[in-house]
Amino acid sequence: MNPATPRWRASSGARWETQFGYSRAIRAGNLVWVSGTVGINADGSVPDGAYAQAKRSLEIITAALGELEATPADVVRTRIFVTDIAFFDDVARAHREVFGDVLPASTLVHVKALVDPAYLLEIEADAVAG
Q1: pLDDT tens digit string along 42-100?
Q2: I want to staple 79 with a disulfide (CB 3.0 to 4.6 A). Which of 10, 71, 74, 124 is the partner?
Q3: Across residues 24-40, what is the average pLDDT?
Q4: Rounded-to-10 torsion of CA 82, 88, 93, 94
Q5: What is the 3-state secondary structure (H, E, C) of the chain?
Q6: Nearest to 123 by CA among 59, 67, 73, 70
Q7: DSSP strand pairing (31-37 vs 25-28)
Q8: Is the pLDDT of residue 125 over 90?
Q9: With contact defined as beta carbons under 8 Å apart, do 51 and 93 qualify?
């Protein structure tokens, strides 16, 4: 990538962003990368269940895309990390509700744990903005 390519950043205000030193999302040219996003509510509470967490995670991702002038329709790839593969159906339902017509390339991986045991999943997204 050309070092002169301008970059724009989106922040969700999550404490992890300043603690770890990253952006919720970055746009360079027409490419957008959304960092791993857990489904945490604005008040810091965690929704109950994998479906609710996936839905909330995708809401945060959609907001980050919007800050960078992109939409879920621009998403070309998602990566989903779950702490229990039994969450597949619930996560797939939430994913399909957002990306059912887009059909991005996608991966779902079972991981041992996330940074907080209350987090059941984390989602990343990559987009090519129009």
Answers
A1: 999 999 999 999 999 999 999 999 999 999 999 999 999 999 999 999 999 999 999 99
A2: 124
A3: 95
A4: 0
A5: CCCCCCEEEECCCCHHHHHHCCCCEEEECCEEEEEEECCCCCCCCCCCCHHHHHHHHHHHHHHHHHHCCCCHHHEEEEEEEECCHHHHHHHHHHHHHHHCCCCCEEEEEECCCCCCCCCCEEEEEEEECC
A6: 59
A7: antiparallel
A8: yes
A9: yes
* Residue among 36, 42, 41, 5 nearest 23 (CA): 36
At residue 66's C-alpha, the angle toward residues 94 and 62, to 5°, is 10
Entry field: residues in the chain: 130
pTM of the model: 0.91
In this structure, the strands spanning 105-110 and 75-82 are parallel
